[in-house]
Q: What sequence folds into this?
């Protein structure tokens, strides 16, 4: 990182992260990350992770990328769908729970569910986003995936999250008044 | 904290992501999909997650954790210590220490050509420097590069110091004050 560039950015906006909106800066990242020495990991605590990553075979790497693509597709669709549920303060906790439920189901998909994922996945890979045609397909997939017990778990998470915030507000008010 | 950032995908196209405080679901991404393909037989007794969870439990404010998220998946993680570390230069100024920094396995050039997203490591490194400025440390940051990562930090013009015997011989790098 060239100090002159950083210093100029900081003097201009007070925020180095504005460089991330600079296409020249971004394209420089490609050059800096190209080549054999393209690892970025730092910190002794990441040693185990790096060790296991270096042991990945090509097949495992491709499998991992596919798993990631599937989860990204489903979680993107999930978020868009859940945003229509109007959960407010309960959203993040419920979303986290829903992700865990989906991951559990992904470990045990039926052949038709697996086939059902490939079509919107191919569309998303092609276009880079969920469009008006792909999103309904993902919602259908998720609807078929979630069991009645899953819905109860998500509902409980949402209500508990909101209840906890209400009670917190009450406690703060009591402490302030005291 | 949550802020919009831009990265490049494997096709060289601009994509928008988020740099945010790390939450449990980012940690879950690390523990499931980042490492999920591998068996659990080689799990270490202690790695950065032990430290993260411990500090989280203690609500120790000197530790900060961040994630880069794109398309609802965690693409990079960073764990900072902001109070106790000092420069290895004689003046011993305070600095932000990068306890851990990593990119998701599909973002690595070695495994995939091209990587799924580019710029993860550099963006995290830049943010560490920004935090240092915000904390009035002048942009000073320090870290120990893992074997194979030294070249990345050299290419980012981070001054290199000796292998640290207290960190299993990892090479120490440190950005000094941002020259303005």
A:
């Amino acid at each position: 990182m060239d100090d002159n560039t950083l210093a100029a950015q900081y003097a201009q906006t007070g925020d180095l992260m504005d460089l991330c909106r600079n296409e020249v800066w971004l394209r420089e990242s490609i050059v800096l990350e190209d080549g054999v020495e393209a690892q970025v990991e730092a910190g002794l605590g990441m040693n185990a992770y790096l060790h296991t990553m270096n042991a990945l075979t090509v097949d495992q790497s491709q499998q991992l990328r596919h798993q990631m693509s599937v989860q990204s597709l489903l979680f993107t669709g999930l978020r868009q769908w859940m945003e229509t549920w109007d959960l407010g303060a309960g959203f993040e906790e419920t979303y986290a729970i829903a992700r865990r439920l989906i991951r559990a189901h992904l470990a045990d998909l039926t052949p038709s569910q697996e086939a059902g994922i490939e079509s919107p996945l191919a569309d998303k890979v092609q276009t880079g986003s969920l469009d008006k045609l792909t999103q309904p397909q993902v919602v259908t997939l998720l609807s078929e995936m979630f069991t009645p017990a899953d819905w109860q778990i998500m509902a409980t998470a949402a209500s508990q999250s909101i209840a906890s915030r209400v009670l917190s507000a009450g406690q703060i008010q009591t402490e302030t008044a005291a | 904290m949550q802020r919009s950032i831009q990265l490049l995908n494997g096709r060289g196209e601009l994509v928008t992501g988020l740099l945010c405080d790390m939450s449990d679901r980012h940690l879950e991404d690390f523990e499931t999909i980042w490492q999920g393909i591998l068996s659990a037989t080689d799990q270490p007794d202690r790695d950065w997650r032990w430290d993260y969870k411990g500090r989280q439990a203690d609500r120790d404010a000197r530790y900060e954790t961040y994630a880069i998220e794109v398309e609802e998946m965690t693409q990079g993680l960073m764990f900072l210590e902001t109070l106790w570390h000092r420069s290895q230069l004689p003046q011993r100024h305070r600095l932000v220490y990068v306890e851990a920094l990593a990119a998701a396995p599909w973002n690595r050039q070695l495994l995939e050509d091209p990587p799924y997203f580019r710029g993860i490591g550099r963006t995290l490194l830049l943010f560490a420097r920004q935090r240092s400025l915000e904390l009035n440390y002048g942009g000073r940051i320090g870290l120990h590069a893992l074997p194979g990562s030294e070249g990345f930090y050299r290419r980012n013009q981070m001054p290199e110091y000796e292998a640290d015997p207290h960190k299993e011989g990892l090479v120490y790098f440190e950005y000094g004050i941002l020259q303005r």
User: Anything to note?
Assistant: The beta strands of chain B are 2-9, 14-21, 63-70, 73-81, 96-103, 117-118, 141-145, 160-164, 170-175. Chain B touches chain A through 88 residues (CB under 8 Å).
